[in-house]
Amino acid sequence: MPGSEITPVRFRNSDGETADGSLFTTVHSAGERIQRALLWLALLWVLAGVSLFIPLAHFVLVPGFLIAGPVVAVMVYRSEWARERAEGKCPVCGEEATIKLEARDEIPKWIYCPACNAALQITEPD
Ligand SMILES: [Zn+2]
After folding, report:
1. Which of 2, 12, 25, 48 could in theory staple to 65 by disulfide, Cβ–Cβ 3.0 to 4.6 A?
2. pTM assigned to the model
């Protein structure tokens, strides 16, 4: 099971008003990273094997999947964490906001409040 990490963050608008929030991050252990990397390698090489039987396209697909396998496996192995979401009160409208984040998002990050559409910055707490 991947571990989950909750870190305190601060939502700040352009006028300097702030509110506290939480940042949810999935943390992958070394064993999980190896497992996920091998899974991706196997998947892409199986796709290379399947695409052998597609006329003409196999000239591109087979070498493409064979090369993509180890490349993607290394990328997956190197990713030690993945951002999930940020939760907290919007400093502008006061609504409880849950913002979905991309896996590679870094803090500080500008987002929009889903309730009032105000531009907010997710930052480290002072
Ligand atoms: Zn808002």
Report:
1. 48
2. 0.76
